[in-house]
Design brief:
Number of domains of chain B: 2
Low-confidence stretches of chain A: none
Number of domains of chain A: 2
Helix content of chain B: 25-40%
Order of helices and strands of chain B: EEHEEEHEHEHEHEHEH
CATH class of the largest domain in chain A: Alpha Beta
Distance between the termini of chain B: 32 Å
Structural class of chain B: alpha/beta
Shape of chain A: globular
Oligomer: heterodimer
Largest sheet of chain B: 5 strands, parallel
CATH architecture of the largest domain in chain B: 3-Layer(aba) Sandwich
CATH class of the largest domain in chain B: Alpha Beta
Mean pLDDT of chain B: 90
Structural class of chain A: alpha/beta
Distance between the termini of chain A: 44 Å
Helix content of chain A: 40-55%
CATH topology of the largest domain in chain A: TIM Barrel
Strand order of the largest sheet of chain A: 7-6-5-4-3-2-10-9-8
Low-confidence stretches of chain B: none
CATH superfamily of the largest domain in chain B: Cobalamin-binding domain
Number of helices of chain A: 21
Strand content of chain A: 5-15%
Number of helices of chain B: 7
Mean pLDDT of chain A: 95
Chain lengths: 522, 255
Amino acid sequence: MSHLTLDQSLIDHARDLARRIARQVYDDMHRFTTTSVERATLRLMGVDGVDADQVPLPNRLVSHLQDQGLLSHGAAVTVAGAMIEHGLDIQEVAQAVADGRLPLRRPKNEPAARHQADDMAARMCERIAANRGMRAEAIARCGEARTPWLYLIVATGNIYEDIVQARVAAEQGADVIAVIRSTGQSLLDYVPYGATTEGFGGTYATQENFRLMRAALDEVGHKIGRYIRLTNYCSGLCMPEIAAMGAMERLDMMLNDSMYGIIFRDINMQRTFIDQFFSRMVNAYAGIIINTGEDNYLTTADAYEAAHTVLASQLINEQFAYLSGLKPDQMGLGHAFEINPALENGFLWELAHAQLVRQVFPEACLKYMPPTKHMTGNIFKGHIQDALFNVVSVLTQQNIHLLGMMTEAIHTPLMQDRFLAIQNARYVFGNLRDLHEEIQFTPGGQIERRAQEALAETATLLREIEQTGLPAAIAKGTFADISRTLTGGKGLDGVVAKAADYHNPFPALMLPALMLDEERGS
Amino acid sequence: MSEHLHQEKWIRPYGDTMDDGRVQLSFTLPVSLDENAKEAARQLALRMGIEEPSVVHSESMGPGFAFFVVYGQCKHRVDMGRIKVARPEFEVLGKDAVNAKIAQLMGRKLVVVGACIETDAHTVGIDAIMNMKGFNGHKGLESYHEIRAINMGAQVDSEELVARAIEEKADAILVSQVVTQKNIHLDNLTRLSDILEAEGLRNRVILVVGGPRISHELAKELGYDAGFGPGCYAENVASFVIEEWARRHAVRQGA
């Protein structure tokens, strides 16, 4: 489709403002670590399992270090020191600490402990790099779908039932399977353990559940000749740990927003900014495509009036992503089809917004989300709303297409809801496949003017945010009409100032050289 | 109403002729599609009370699952004359009229505390009723100058909600429940009402629940004063709350 005429210098200006906004937050937060970053670090070094009360050992270790006032040095070196001094492997150290048999203290030989930690981290990075290689090889062997990829959610609460549904969905045409989490998991300050068969509105994200679903999708992908991507939710209080688990089990996508937890889960701002940096670094290294959550703004605020907040947030998310080493094709920047269907010409505005996002982020792996807010129990109308959404997606060349369900407003999808949703999308995508090459936007027409207007509003908003700083902007309710403060919300007690000798072995291994120089320089 | 005055009115679905009973249904069977599967779909419809079922569409959904669309005639009828659904009895006022009524009857602001309780993380409903912006052009309770509206947001523990209600001397508590998988909303709602009872607050506060799967009848069963489902806006809730407050305080308008 011919492009909308947009002012490139305004786009560059907006991007530059977003870069400064993200950089300011990064510089302010860089002096801190969090309990969840340290737990993720220990998981990546090999700590796993739970104690008799089902408390994960990474939590036991980090709580112990926090009680001893040692967490500010970083968990990795202290734990590696204990390994050397007691001749134990890391799991044995974790178990001994959990049993109360081994109080941890600063290593006697700090350089040796550091070396040990760095070695273990390097081995994990080799494993993650091998996973990346396996993914590339599987895609080369099986092939992969054309975009927009069909993204489907399973959410039975029982991982074994999820696997049945995911296999059927893949055979029907799904390209991406997301296992939605049990409601409330984002606010748990630990990651549950093992395979789980009970959940509410979703299935717990556990490393074992990741492994089981990964194996099932590899098998079905092999059978149908298409690599099936697996998605989970790298959000909430355990964002860095979920990233670590996903990297180890070769997930392909993670919902991983820099601000979603702050705004929609009332998780502390500082905690989130620190956690998102580490988790995105792990995702970047593991070749995982992150999905951002701007679609959520539109379920709370009005989708027409708030269109510019989506673009502003995407630009900020993009800059945070760069700081963590993510490449454009790993950035699943999110937006949604949520304009009130009663609004005259609403389809034109949806088209304008989607095409605007496409042109501002030409290389990004955009994620387009279906109508939810204005879906009703009228499933027949809902199916048509989803069809219009499918039209915009294929016309504007979106990459990740979350399938709309006609029963969106009623229940988690039934088997036939997914089946009909896939049929709907395949029909529309197939019938309109090349339409975008055949039609043009009227220069100076309503669609183009709407896109220009949203872009101009975005730049204005980013100028305001740049002046006050992002935390103050969030406190003002800039995004989704929801206000959060720097010291409010859950999880602030997990934010710890780094000591001068703080060491974490992973940034040096995972961040690209350019970012690393900045990391060291600051 | 005595039994002999009851006016019978038996009805069933209308397709294209009165009383033809025509209905459509669609479902998945956990078997691969073949002639036996189609016959199974037909027999299933018969057992549901669908006469002359016709499997108009069947399609394989991959190994082990098949999809069916069935038309037929429902053999059952219901007597409209015997149906009386519980509804909260109140007059729906506009925003200005609600404000005026509160000012006149209470002489102070009406205090409303709301939340999505327990595990429920979906604030769409409570936000639509409480936030300034409201929903679909209907402003939320925050925009009513005679109402102090406190929206505590998602995943609020029942204890936390009750504590806030005490602290704010709330006249009404609004709870939203969107997730209903495995009937978790029933557990959550019962828990809140039990805590209010235990605190001796239940009779002092007007307790209202809303959500896409909530009916007034269900709300009453759970010991709530009212339940609001889809299509209700802030003015419906506000109108009910002030009328219920007036009833409890035996204040008659104009008296």
